[in-house]
Amino acid sequence: MAKITLNLISGRTISQGVAMEGGKEKDLYRKACGIIEMDDADFKKLGCWKNTNVRVTSPYGTVIVKAQETSQGPHPGVGFIPMGPWANQLVNPNTYSTGMPTFKGTPVEVEVAMDQPILLGVELVQKACRGEV
Amino acid sequence: MTKTVTDVVCPFCGTLCDDLEVSVTDDGKQILDVYNACAIGAEKFLHSQAKDRITRPRLQQPDGTWKEISYEEAADYTAKMLAGAKKPLMYGWSSTNCEAQSMGHEIAEMCCACVDNTAAVCHGTTLIAVQDIGLPTCTLGEVKNRADTIIFWGCNPCHAHPRHMSRYSIFPRGFFTGKGHKSRKLVVVDPRVTDTAKMADMHLQVTQGQDYELLNAFRVAFRNEWLPDVVAGIPKEKIIEAANIMKAGRFGIIFFGMGVTQSLGKNHNIDEAIAVTKDLNEYTKFSIMPMRGHYNVTGSGEVLAWQFGYPYSVDLTRGFPRYNPGDTSSIDLLTRGEIDAAFVIGSDPGAHFPISAVKQIAKVNSVCIDPHITPTSGVSKLHVPVAFVGVETGGNAYRMDNVPIDCRKVVDPPAGMLTDEEFLTMVRDRVKKLKGVA
Ligand code: SF4
């Protein structure tokens, strides 16, 4: 299976804000934040359809999310996961003595993981804390 | 019949809109509709009415189930945890009012805790830069009435602060900006073609992580010195054109967000952005303002600063305040495994901290004060649901431009629920007894 390398950034989206207020244990939150927005060109390189589950892996962790066509592109080479527990499985916790982790600019690898489930927000964090993912 | 509550303040983002109208039932118990708010603000009010809301404190059992307890028992648990810990962390504070923050700080002082707010993961690096070189800033009212050149750098208000542009920065007709958006030039700097960038007169699609280089190039361009052909992915001609737009305005402002504070370079990116603002004041009037996220993260910084002298990452373990981001900041304290109890209020580190830090919260004794079920409450030993500030109780909050605004109470909380401040007062009284403080 093909693997591609992207530069990962995270940030707010309006649906992330709405879903967060609607309840982080709900499916809507997973739909809003358990995704990675990718450029058309990167979909071609990865060789998969839009809305496929993918595994994203960084030097700091790994997570399953849904690959979606970016709504705010083009940005070839850049992946975007809305801020939330999915993005935070991957970000660089090093603060370089500023107190601030490096949330933007994490190198990640993306590969197709069609049959693997995307966990709900609360469930994902609980499982990660118990070392089950 | 229904009645309408006017001039309601939205307790979601740092824009702190104060023109909402909320229609409620005659008995004042239920919210029916919300007017003037953006989608996120409206959801905040409407979701507070959810039928499946948790209304009593819950203790997590070893098998992962929850046992309901009373607020008294919850206050006992919290007070014992904090008073007994060697180095407790009291984190959050950005989605509660200043009154609760102040009460929390009293507890923190008695328990020699580390106190930190969500600036740790949003504008903490901005605060460091401000301490480095100062901040030429203004209020949003001045922006509305005067600003004709608006720069959004590494921020996406269309999504994060949805009414910022319509209330203050782009669309309103102000005293000297009578033509609304027609009298304003908008430049957006962002590595993605964000919805904000799509509206811009000029979009500079900077290479991610090279904001410092681009800011620096602007300072060179202002002085008409030599520039390489391309800087941070932007051709020289475009940089010069943007620099001229900035110089030509009568009143300009740079709004900046996480794109600059969270990328490598961190506080140095902001240093440079402030230096750009300072340079521009040689030619015209220019200001700069951080786009603060939570509705009262600014307030937390204010209250911490006036009580302890520092705006975030305050360490009281020695009985007096110390401040050294990187050492006394929550992510570092957590990833180094230094804290032995976690108290979280008005924020959700479970969702918004790197997972390695969250694992530490799950390991130690922990209390989460939050009206919602969140990833933080999910890994905490005790979850204390409280009334929504700005919906079910009032209190003071600071807008992103440091203007304090009193929030309004719109409806009553569900019967028997306490507010942050009431619960913290109960904890404070118990800690006093445990510590033998008069
Ligand atoms: S812009 Fe911010 S403060 Fe205004 S209504 Fe929307 S969420 Fe609330």
In short:
Chain A is an alpha/beta fold. Chain A is 24% helix and 31% strand.
What key phrases describe this protein's structure?
heterodimer; A: 133 residues; alpha/beta; Barwin-like endoglucanases; 6 strands; B: 438 residues; Rossmann fold; Dimethylsulfoxide Reductase, domain 2; 3 domains; nine-stranded mixed β-sheet; 21 strands; binds iron/sulfur cluster
SSE layout and pairing:
The complex is a heterodimer of chains A (about 130) and B (about 450).
Chain A (H helix, E strand, L loop, with lengths): L2 E9 L2 H9 L4 H7 L1 E4 L1 H7 L5 E7 L2 E9 L8 E5 L23 E7 L8 H9 L4
Parallel strand pairs in A: 1-5, 2-4
Antiparallel strand pairs in A: 1-6, 3-4, 3-6
Chain B lengths: L1 E7 L11 E6 L5 E5 L3 H9 L10 E3 L5 E3 L2 H14 L3 E5 L5 H14 L2 E4 L6 H10 L6 H7 L2 E5 L3 H4 L3 H6 L15 E5 L5 H4 L3 E3 L6 H12 L7 E2 L2 E2 H13 L2 E6 L1 H4 L5 H14 L4 E6 L6 H12 L5 E2 L6 E2 L6 H6 L5 E5 L3 H4 L2 H9 L1 E5 L5 H5 L2 E3 L10 E4 L5 E4 L12 H16 L3
Helix pairs in contact in B: 2-18, 3-13, 3-18, 4-12, 9-10, 9-12
Bound molecules: iron/sulfur cluster (SF4).
